[in-house]
Write a structure and sequence with these properties.
The protein is α/β, with parallel strands linked by helices. The chain is 45% helix and 16% strand. Zinc ion binds next to loops.
């Protein structure tokens, strides 16, 4: 009985000794400033900034064709869609890069589209030379994800707010919803094709007002990135 008690006391002593040695060790390490021992410096070991979102813009028709081509009464070319798309894409990229986002501008049939995994993809196009006015946006028709729907909702809220253009739903074509890019990229990449306006009725806004158009596109993308990642703080007004 007594032997049993002694044995237990010995065990307790051994445990207390081990604990003491551990505590002394940690205290000594803190003194020496070793990072694992101090709570604050642990944060310093983790990556300080989250990876910036990767945004892909497609400059519609770039590297392939000129898209819609408008001419005046004399038959002289006044504006080509691909030029309008490229000018806006450059401006959108500039606005988003200012926020620290990583932005790539792709050609219409860019090889990098195959299996692309990005945080967001927006393809920029402009509509024909007819005298209509309005924009329209579409995501993949085939089983769109929640992220696709969120991106579309953000664009439908922010793009008209910035540009003053109305939604023009009647002219969403099969080419838009069955867009070749939707079939190439990875399904996890939220994607959208945007017809920014008509070269006819909105020609002036699309050319002289390219900064305003770009702001609308950038706002739509930033809205989506903020809504889909809660740790990303909204931009200061
Ligand atoms: Zn186009």
């Amino acid at each position: 009985m007594r032997r049993d008690l002694l044995g237990r006391i010995q065990k307790v002593f051994l445990l207390v000794s081990i604990l003491l040695i551990l505590v002394i060790g940690v205290l000594a390490a803190q003194d020496a400033g070793l990072p694992w021992a101090t709570g604050e410096s642990l944060a310093g070991l983790l990556p300080s900034a989250p990876k910036p979102p990767h945004i892909v813009l497609i400059s519609g028709h770039k590297g392939n064709d000129s898209g819609a081509v408008c001419t005046d009464a004399a038959g002289t070319v006044t504006v080509e869609e691909a030029d309008v798309n490229a000018a806006v894409a450059e401006r959108v990229a500039g606005l988003l890069r200012q926020k620290g986002d990583e932005v790539d501008i792709f050609d219409e049939f860019d090889e990098r589209l195959q299996g692309l995994m990005a945080d967001v993809l927006v393809s920029l196009h402009a509509d024909s030379c007819v005298a209509y006015s309005g924009y329209k946006a579409a995501h993949r028709d085939n089983a769109p994800s929640a992220a696709d729907s969120l991106l579309l909702a953000c664009m439908d809220e922010r793009y008209p707010a910035a540009t003053g253009l109305v939604y023009h739903p009647d002219t969403i074509t099969q080419d838009m919803i069955d867009y070749h890019v939707f079939r190439k990229i990875d399904r996890s990449t939220p994607a959208l094709i945007l017809e920014m306006g008509f070269l006819g009725g909105d020609g002036r806004l699309l050319t002289e007002g390219a900064d305003t158009v770009a702001q609308g596109v950038a706002d739509g993308i930033s809205c989506f990135l903020t809504a889909s990642s809660p740790e990303r703080t909204p931009a200061a007004p």
